[in-house]
Amino acid sequence: MKQNKLTEIQEKNIFKITRVYTKMAPIIALIGRTNVGKSTLFNILTKKRNALVSDLSGLTRDRNYESCYLEKNTKFILVDTAGFDFKSNVIQEQAHKQTLTAIKESDLIFFVVNARDGVLPQEYEILKEIRKYQKESFLVINKIDGIKEIEKINEFYSLGFKKNIQISASHNQGINHLINEHLIPWIKFKYEKIQSKQILETKNISIKIACIGKPNVGKSTLINSLLMQDRIITSNIPGTTLDVISIPIKYNNKNYILIDTAGTSKKKTKKKIEQISIIKTLKTIQKTDITLLVIDAKNEQFRICHQNLLLINIIENFGKPLIIIINKWDLLNFSEKNQFKKLLNYQLKNSFFLKIHFISAINSEGIYEIFKLIEDFNLSYQHKISTSKLMQIMKDAIKKHQPPMINGRRIKLKYVHLGNYNPIKIIIHGNQTRYLPITYKKYLKNFFYKSLAIHGVPINLKFKETINPYV
């Protein structure tokens, strides 16, 4: 059913989604066993900490892409992958397929091995798999720090690589040699015809969209449906996604980066990896342009949980536009849908900065309208707000409901102007503004929302005290 729908949409040419980076820069994949240091090397070369790193094995599951800029116009795409020995359960089998896809897409493979372990039989099996695709490969011997027996490192020459590079990723040892003597010359030789204009275009585009929500609500399924491929591992097991995965796509000639995140559970977790994942999710919200909060319609049709209400509050404080995605909408009957909509209107009646959209990610129903909502956000930001209009709105608000009295004197709001566009910040000057109660501040914010008619874009109010020159 799903495949038929996708084929029909493709035939009608309603949308076009292509990977932004394809043919724009070479793709280098990090391949190897579990826990040989691929994610540590990924973080060092990308100069970011986007890949989860731990002594625990099996943390990387999906393909994780990141742009790397070494010199002027010297760019490549680095892909972190799951350990090649993942084959024991459903998630691990899917992770194995993700790694195979990364090999197929890559132009160069860094085959990463652990110097402390020496050559293991598994390495020969992985090498046999890699050579099926006839990809150019470098052997990266990691964790050489503290290795005194040179024979242990010499073992790796039996793998038959032309280039053997010795490093210690965690101690930043041999990284400059890897970059200057091997990586940059290979990129320049292989892709010297890439125009700098293309690279700059790729670097400066893209609206970043974060997909957040509780575990198992369909975040990864939504992204896979938008991409029309099994790009991210999905399963019924909560906590399948541990890392933050960024995927660039193009829709209607506009570039976006979809970011899948780990589920934010309301239960206090003692697992360090899950705690790190939640922190990374919150940091992702801060850095992105728009947030999609995915909610399971079947599980939350009677009440939006405290965890999601807390996330909504956090996103508003960050000043980010929010679209609440009600997923699995197809599982509710007509009566349940009406009841759920009434609940949403009641619980979110004062949340003017968000929009609500209903979808079925697994059936690809309503998913492409999300891009239309995102475009509406951009139009709202382009909407010019004059000082005179803000002054008139503030006067109307005061006329309808005056500020309270403090010590026999009424709080006076004198002047208002726009402080910033993205996010929208409105600055109000007056006397005794520090005494304004929260209820009146909320009243003013709601009044501005309704009067400006820019629902969906967060408004931040800042109050400043007017200095009396005679005091």
Structure description:
It is a single chain. It is built from 14 helices and 18 strands. By secondary structure, the chain is of the alpha/beta class. The chain has three domains: 172 residues, P-loop containing nucleotide triphosphate hydrolases (Rossmann fold, 3-Layer(aba) Sandwich); 177 residues, Rossmann fold; 79 residues, GMP Synthetase, Chain A, domain 3, CATH 3.30.300.20. The strands form four sheets. A seven-stranded mixed sheet has the order 1-9-10-8-11-12-13, with helices on both faces. A six-stranded mixed sheet has the order 3-4-2-5-6-7, sandwiched between helices. Helix 13 crosses helix 14. The chain starts with a helix and ends in a 6-residue tail after the last strand.
Spatial separation of the terminal alpha carbons: 75 Å
Number of DSSP E strands = 18
Mean pLDDT: 77
Helical fraction equals 25-40%
- Shape type: elongated
Q: Tell me, what is the CATH class of the largest domain? A: Alpha Beta
Q: What strand order characterises the main sheet? A: 1-9-10-8-11-12-13
Output the radius of gyration.
26 Å
Going by CATH, the architecture of the largest domain would be 3-Layer(aba) Sandwich
The DSSP helix count reads 14
Beta-strand residue percentage: 15-25%
CATH homolog superfamily of the largest domain: P-loop containing nucleotide triphosphate hydrolases
Structural class: alpha/beta
Low-confidence spans? 1-23, 51-61, 193-204, 233-242
CATH topology of the largest domain: Rossmann fold
Number of domains: 3
Major sheet description:
7 strands, mixed
